[in-house]
């Protein structure tokens, strides 16, 4: 084949056009199969006041502002399971709330016990601290939920509410921190 007779500007133009068509096709595919269903699910979830979706090199993050909820664990689980049905890619859910200074201060006094319970598994001790500090701050609601993957803290006072969702350490992470030893 004689490469001197090839029209290089035409070849480059065709290559650029092909890449552009493929990029647009991927964008349209993602919009139709992931973004629209994801947004429709979140918009139809009554506890969700607002949301935004961000994509970057680390994956997809959904920032969700919740209104007042009766059970943070159930609400969070419902949202994450619904998102898993819509997208095959992992999605990180970040919960926003409507906290004020009093709730922030109460959380500050509680978070040491909660963080310790994440490392040691002493969730009943953390619950005692949460209950005591909530009573001291005269909060309307103070709930600490625990499941296999996360710890959920839900505080409310007047028209403000605070939600914290904390991942529990995995067994591998715990072994790495303790050098493979179990117990303390």
Describe the structure.
The protein is α+β, with helices and mostly antiparallel strands. It has 2 domains: 8-96, GMP Synthetase, Chain A, domain 3 (2-Layer Sandwich); 101-178. 51% of the residues lie in helices and 24% in strands. The strands form 2 sheets. It has a 3-stranded mixed β-sheet with strand order 1-2-3, with helices on one face. A 3-stranded antiparallel β-sheet has the order 4-5-6, with helices on one face. A hairpin with a 3-residue loop joins β4 (141-146) and β5. Residues 173-184 have low confidence and may be disordered.
Count the E strands: 6
Mean pLDDT: 86
Describe the oligomeric state of these chains in a short phrase: single chain
Shape: elongated
Number of helices: 5
Strand content: 15-25%
Instruction: Using the coordinates above, name the CATH class of the largest domain.
Output: Alpha Beta
| Structural class designation | alpha+beta
CATH architecture of the largest domain: 2-Layer Sandwich
Q: How many strands, which pairing sense, and closed or not: the largest β-sheet?
A: 3 strands, mixed
CA-atom Rg in angstroms: 24 Å
Uncertain spans: 173-184
In short, what is this structure?
The chain has 5 helices and 6 strands. It has about 180 residues and is α+β, with helices and mostly antiparallel strands. The chain has 2 domains: about 10-95, 2-Layer Sandwich (GMP Synthetase, Chain A, domain 3); about 100-180.
Defining key terms:
6 strands; alpha+beta; GMP Synthetase, Chain A, domain 3; single chain; three-stranded antiparallel sheet
What's the topology here?
Layout: H1 8-44, E1 48-56, E2 59-66, H2 72-86, E3 91-96, H3 101-120, H4 123-136, E4 141-146, E5 150-157, E6 160-167, H5 171-178
Parallel strand pairs: 2-3
Antiparallel strand pairs: 1-2, 4-5, 5-6
């Amino acid at each position: 084949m004689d490469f001197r007779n090839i029209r290089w500007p035409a070849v480059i133009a065709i290559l650029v056009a092909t890449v552009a068509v493929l990029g647009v096709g991927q964008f349209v595919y993602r919009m139709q199969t992931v973004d629209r269903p994801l947004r429709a699910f979140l918009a139809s979830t009554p506890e969700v006041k607002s949301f935004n979706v961000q994509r970057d090199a680390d994956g997809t993050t959904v920032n969700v502002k919740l209104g007042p909820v009766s059970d943070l664990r159930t609400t969070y689980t419902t949202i994450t399971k619904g998102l898993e049905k819509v997208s095959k890619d992992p999605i990180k859910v970040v919960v926003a709330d409507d906290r004020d200074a009093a709730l922030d201060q109460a959380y500050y006094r509680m978070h040491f016990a909660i963080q310790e319970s994440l490392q040691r598994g002493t969730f009943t001790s953390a619950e005692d601290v949460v209950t005591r500090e909530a009573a001291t701050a005269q909060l309307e609601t103070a709930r600490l939920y625990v499941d296999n993957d996360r710890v959920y803290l839900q505080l409310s006072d007047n028209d403000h509410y605070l939600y914290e969702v904390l991942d529990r350490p995995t067994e591998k992470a715990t072994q790495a921190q303790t050098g493979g030893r179990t117990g303390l």
